[in-house]
Amino acid sequence: MVQGRPATASAFGWLRVRASLLLVTTLLVVACLVSALAVITASHLTREQYGRLQQLEREQNQLQTEWGQLLLEESAWSSPARIERLAVERLEMRLPDVNEVEVIRP
């Protein structure tokens, strides 16, 4: 007997403490595993998204290059010298003489 208690009571008390320590330890191990899995998942998703970002940046660069080429082509097709040449060759247009110009007054 320890201080008026039977020996079995102190043994059961020790078992309760030990069981609660085991439960707390188990919960901490489970929490660590869940945290580790969350970190692994977040890292994996980050890597996937970064790969997608790089792919989209490459596509953006390609489209930017194509846009620049289209702007150059548009400026070549719409140059005033080309338009005038086509008007003369295909439509047989010409600048009117001074005598052919009429001024209309309101």
From TrEMBL:
It comes from Halomonas kalidii. One of its GO terms (biological process) is cell division. Residues 46-73 form a coiled coil. Keywords: Cell cycle, Cell division, Cell inner membrane, Cell membrane, Coiled coil, Membrane, Transmembrane, Transmembrane helix. NCBIfam families: ftsL_broad. Part of a complex composed of FtsB, FtsL and FtsQ. The gene is ftsL. InterPro entries: Cell_div_FtsL. This is Cell division protein FtsL. HAMAP family: FtsL (MF_00910). The chain crosses the membrane at residues 20-42.
